[in-house]
Amino acid sequence: MNVQLIIAAVVSFAVVVVAMPFIIKLAVRLNVTDKPNQRKVHQKIMPRWGGVGIFLGVVVGYFVSGLYEMQLTGIIVGAVLIVLIGMIDDKYELSARVKLAGQILAALLVASTGLTIELLTIPFVGTFHLGPWAYITTIFWIIAITNAINLIDGLDGLAAGVSVIVMVTIAIMAGLNGNMMILSLALVIAASTAGFLMYNFNPAKIFMGDTGSLFLGYSISILSLLGLYKSVTLFSFVVPIIILGVPVFDTSFAIIRRMANKKPISAPDKGHLHHRLINLGLSHRKTVLVIYGLSIVFSVAAVVFESSTLWGSVVIVIGLLLMLEVIAEIIGLVHHKYRPVLFLYKKFIGTMQVNSPDKD
Questions:
Q1: Is 120 helix (H, G, I), strand (E, B) or coil?
Q2: Each residue's pLDDT tens digit, 94-148
C-alpha cells in the first residue's frame, strides 16, 4: 500500500470528523431531522444528513489519492445524483417511485459508460453472452445493492459499522488481486464512514439518513461491478452477496415474514434482526456489536470463498445458509413457531436416543 493512499484515508477520516459538528448544526437549522415513531428505536429528534459528511470525506480523498486521474466520470455523476436524491429525501421524504426513478437514472449513467456484465459462466454448463440483458442485469444489480444498506439502518452505528466492515473486506480482496483502483476507492470510503461513525455510534449525535445509506449502497454496487467487470462466473455474483450477508439476510427473512403473516412485502414492521435481538434482552450497543460480529463472519467467508475450489464454495454456501436459518429460528425472525430445522434436529436426536442400545 503506497503512502499517498494512506494519507488519503487519514485525510478523509479527519475531514469527516471536523465537518460533522457543522453538518449537525446545519441539519438542525434546516429541520432535516428524523422524528421518533412506534417503528423506530430512537426516542428523540435526530439530525440527518450525516451522509453529506461521508460524501465530503470521499470527495477529498478522491483528489488526495489521485483517483481523479482515472476516467470515472459516469460513476461520479451517478454518485452525485444518488447523494442529491438522498439529501432531498431526508428533507422532504420523497415517494418510493421518485427515489427509484433517480436510482434507475444513476444506474443508466453507469451502464452507458460500458461498465456492464456481458458474459456469465455457469459451472458445468457453459458461458453465455447476455447481449441486451447485460444492461438490464447491471441496472438491477446497482439498484438492488444501492438499497441494501438502507434496510439495516435501524440502530445507532449499525449501518455505518457494517459498511466499514464491507468496505475493508472489499479493499482486502482488491489488494490480494492487485486492483489498486478498487483498493483506493474502498479505503477512502471506509475511512470517511469511520469518521462518521465517531458521531453515530450509540448514543448517536446524527444519523446518516438516506443520503448516507444510498450513497454507501451505490458505492458498494459500483465496487463490486468493477470487480466483476465484463465476464463473471455464476459464483462471482455470490461473493458481494456474501459480503453483504447481514442486509441480504435481514431483507430475505423480512419478505418471508411478511408473506407468512399475509402482509404486503413493503409493509414496515419491528421484526428485523436488530429488533429481535433487542427483544431478547440485548442492549442497544450489544445488539450492534453482535451484528458487527456476524458481518465479520460473512466477510471472512467471502475471502475464503473466492480462493476455494468449486466444491469448497458449495460447502461454504450451504454452511452459511444453514447457519442463517438456525439463527432466524432461534430469534424468531419469521415467527416464534417457525422452527423447521430445529424441529427436525430435535426429532433426529430423539430418534437416535430411542434407537440407542441400553448401556445397562
A1: strand
A2: 888 999 999 999 999 999 888 887 777 665 666 777 788 888 988 988 998 888 8
pTM (predicted TM-score): 0.87
Q: Quick one: 3 exposed, middle or buried, by C-beta within 10 A (0-12, 13-18, 19+)?
A: exposed
Most confident of 102-116, 182-196, 282-296, 306-320: 182-196
CA distance 332 to 269: 14
CA distances (Å), origin 138, targets 107, 117, 129, 155, 229: 8, 6, 14, 30, 10
Q: Is 69 exposed, middle or buried (0-12, 13-18, 19+ CB in 10 A)?
A: exposed
Sign (positive/negative) of CA torsion 75, 165, 331, 326? positive
Q: Looking at residues 340-344, what average pLDDT do you find?
A: 79
Instruction: List pLDDT tens digits, range 157-177.
Output: 999 999 999 999 999 888 888
- Count CB neighbours of 323 within 10 A: 16
Identify the CA nearest to 106 among candidates 181, 180, 207, 217.
Answer: 217
DSSP H helices in the chain: 3-29, 50-64, 73-92, 96-112, 133-146, 158-176, 180-200, 209-228, 234-243, 245-260, 273-279, 284-306, 310-331, 340-355
State phi, psi for 187 to the nearest 5 degrees.
Answer: -70, -40
